[in-house]
């Protein structure tokens, strides 16, 4: 389990197709804090560390993961957000983020503000129902608060610290983003569906 509090960023230094998926190498000093066989969130996608050195780690993305995300579009030099799982005795901030991407959205607008940047994201219909005002959403693995939403979009405000710690400062309009809904919304949806069916 993750919290959506991105710890640092890394840079894709190598990608290669492999049987039933794709292998990614991420260059980052953060690699010293990782262990082979353990999980790491790469722009919101939970992957397993296969190899590591002091300044890089490698992880494998299956075809199913590639089909749900934009990981197959990553190229050498692209930046990614990184987060380790929350330790059992750790302080819980952010919100519950599983690292299982629900959908891919698109940056629809970027507006500079006095303190930070406002982002507008277009989302598929299947994801829009999980959005509520002031609710939590994970965008590329970062826990953000929904400021406003419409039928096919939502808005968030990224504060300077978020811009500094994540890849959001490098985003452009039309760039893809990974989206993960608050798992609490999914439980509510499931419960209501069961009640309606009874």
Largest sheet descriptor: 7 strands, antiparallel
Q: CATH first level of the largest domain: which class? A: Mainly Beta
CATH arch. level architecture of the largest domain: Beta Barrel
How helical, in percent, are the residues? 10-25%
Strand content: 35-45%
Poorly predicted sequence stretches spanning 5 or more consecutive residues: none
Overall pLDDT confidence: 92
Q: If helices are DSSP runs of H or I spanning 4 or more residues, what is the number of helices?
A: 4
- How far the N terminus sits from the C terminus, by CA atoms, comes to 32 Å
Radius of gyration equals: 17 Å
User: What number of structural domains do the residues give?
Assistant: 2
Number of strands: 13
Query: Element order, helices and strands?
Result: EEEEEHEEEHEEEEHEH
Major beta sheet, strand line-up: 10-9-13-7-8-12-11
Mass-distribution shape: globular
Write the CATH fold name of the largest domain. Answer: Elongation Factor Tu (Ef-tu), domain 3
Helix- and strand-based class? Answer: alpha+beta
């Amino acid at each position: 389990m993750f919290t959506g509090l991105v710890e640092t960023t890394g840079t894709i230094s190598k990608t290669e197709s492999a049987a039933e998926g794709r292998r990614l190498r991420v260059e980052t000093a953060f690699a010293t804090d990782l262990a082979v066989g353990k999980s790491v969130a790469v722009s919101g996608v939970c992957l397993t560390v296969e190899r590591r050195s002091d300044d890089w780690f490698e992880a494998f993305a299956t075809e199913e993961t590639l089909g749900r995300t934009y990981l197959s579009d990553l190229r050498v030099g692209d930046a990614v957000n990184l987060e380790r799982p929350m330790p059992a005795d750790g302080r819980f901030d952010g919100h519950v983020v599983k690292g299982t991407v629900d959908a891919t959205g698109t940056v629809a607008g970027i507006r500079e503000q006095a303190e930070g940047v406002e982002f507008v994201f277009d989302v598929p219909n299947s994801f829009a129902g999980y959005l509520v005002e002031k609710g939590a959403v994970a965008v590329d693995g970062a826990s953000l608060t929904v400021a406003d939403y419409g039928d096919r979009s939502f808005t968030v405000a990224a504060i300077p610290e978020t811009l500094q710690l994540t890849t959001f400062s490098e985003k452009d309009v039309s760039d893809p983003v990974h989206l993960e809904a608050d798992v609490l919304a999914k439980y509510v949806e499931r419960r209501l569906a069961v009640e309606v069916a009874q």
